[in-house]
Design a protein that fits this description.
CATH topology of the largest domain: Rossmann fold
Largest sheet: 7 strands, mixed
Strand order of the largest sheet: 8-7-6-9-12-17-18
Helix content: 40-55%
Number of strands: 18
Pathway: Amino-acid biosynthesis; L-methionine biosynthesis via salvage pathway; L-methionine from S-methyl-5-thio-alpha-D-ribose 1-phosphate: step 1/6
Number of helices: 13
Oligomer: single chain
Function: Catalyzes the interconversion of methylthioribose-1-phosphate (MTR-1-P) into methylthioribulose-1-phosphate (MTRu-1-P).
Shape: globular
Number of domains: 2
Keywords: Amino-acid biosynthesis, Isomerase, Methionine biosynthesis
Structural class: alpha/beta
CATH superfamily of the largest domain: Translation initiation factor eif-2b, domain 2
Organism: Roseibium sediminicola
EC number: 5.3.1.23
Length: 368
């Protein structure tokens, strides 16, 4: 995507051919910095502390993490150890499992002396596949936005509400929920995005707003609880979010607060769509609420907030009363009954088992 006119991916092979570079997302929105990963441990750390985040990008980073491990030691034992270590970094994003399973099954069949080269090729392929998938998601989602735009007065924007960051920064390029937005904007369809701040890590205010602004897309940052109010007053035409894991029946797990947006959308007859690449679908699960593990993150993310002072200093302050217990579930599950449709690389699907299985029969066969 464009950052002030210059094209970037979120992760790429460094010029030395043996290390990997990422955009350090912990520095947003106050700085744009590149970090370099030299080892598998560096990749695991980047995932764990959220230098990279978003299910597709986590999967891509894990692929490169395996490649870095194979460059250091291409043995069977190290392949299994690297995959196990990377798997433990984040429990919710199914793309992590998908990428590591793909790497393990593929590389175990390659002679050790050829594994490093094969692993880097596999990681590059995962990245290229993610971009192609997101472009297809963008085209299918743009049709939904275009249909709404045709019902509006000339020049009136389509108002889109999103939650968290399912943008370019959560993938290798384009994003999932934002791909239709970028394609609509670039294609001349007037759009305006309501950007939820997305407490407690503020991925909306810090990341989505940053990338939309640098790409030139009109947007407004709002507090998380404003979405329902805007829907009641007809100021939201469509909701599009991403997802970190989707069940075979169409339940979607996304950043905490997504479920409340879906409830508000249902009550106000606002279409609620979820944009997702097929690797995000977990065909082994049928009930998202009971079966998807929800990551419980540090309470410090809630009790502290980092910002920039008027003097320009970056400081972290406490915002919760002393002595209070803090809970921090990072995700929630939106049942399929609240989802209007799933925007995938193979079209917009109904959120049910048959529609999903018909669109991805090869994935169903693999999970059987």
């Amino acid at each position: 995507m464009n950052v002030d006119g210059k094209k970037y991916r979120t992760i790429w092979l460094a010029e030395d051919g043996g290390s990997v570079e990422i955009i350090d997302q912990t520095k947003f929105p106050y700085a744009f910095e590149i970090a370099r990963l030299h080892t598998m441990e560096d990749a695991a750390h980047a995932i764990r502390v959220m230098q990279v985040r978003g299910a597709p990008l986590i999967g891509a980073t894990a692929g490169y993490g395996v490649a870095l491990a194979m460059r250091a030691d291409p043995s069977d034992a190290n392949l299994h150890a690297a995959c196990s270590a990377l798997l433990e970094t984040r429990p919710t994003a199914v793309n992590l499992h998908w990428a590591l399973d793909k790497a393990r099954k593929s590389l175990i069949q390659v002679a050790p002396e050829n594994r490093a080269a094969a692993a880097f090729t596999l990681a590059n392929d995962i990245c290229d596949e993610d971009i192609a998938i997101n472009m297809s998601i963008g085209m299918h989602g743009m049709e939904l936005i275009a249909a709404i735009s045709r019902l509006k007065r000339e020049g009136e924007p389509v108002n889109i509400l999103t939650h968290c960051n399912a943008g370019w920064l959560a993938t290798v390029d384009w994003g999932t929920a934002t791909a239709p937005i970028y394609m609509s904007h670039d294609g001349g369809i007037p759009v305006h995005v309501w950007v939820d701040e997305t407490r407690p890590r503020n991925q909306g205010a810090f990341l989505t707003a940053w990338e939309l602004g640098h790409h030139g897309v009109p947007h407004t940052v709002i507090v998380d609880n404003a979405g329902g109010h805007l829907m009641q007053h007809g100021e939201v035409d469509i909701v599009i979010t991403g997802t970190d894991r989707t069940t075979a029946t169409g339940d979607v797990c996304n950043k905490i607060g997504t479920y409340l947006k879906a409830l508000a959308a249902k009550d106000n007859n606002v279409p609620f769509y979820v944009a997702l690449p097929s690797p995000t679908i977990d065909f082994s699960l049928s009930d998202g609420v009971s079966q998807i593990p929800i990551e419980e993150r540090s309470g410090l993310e809630v009790s502290q907030m980092t910002g920039r002072t008027e003097a320009g200093a970056i400081e972290t302050i406490n915002i919760v009363a002393d002595g209070s217990e803090v809970g921090n579930p990072a995700f929630d599950v939106t049942p399929a009954r609240l989802v209007t449709g799933l925007i995938t690389e193979r079209g917009v699907l109904e959120p049910n088992r048959k529609s999903i299985a018909d669109a991805f029969p090869e994935r169903v066969k693999m999970s059987a």
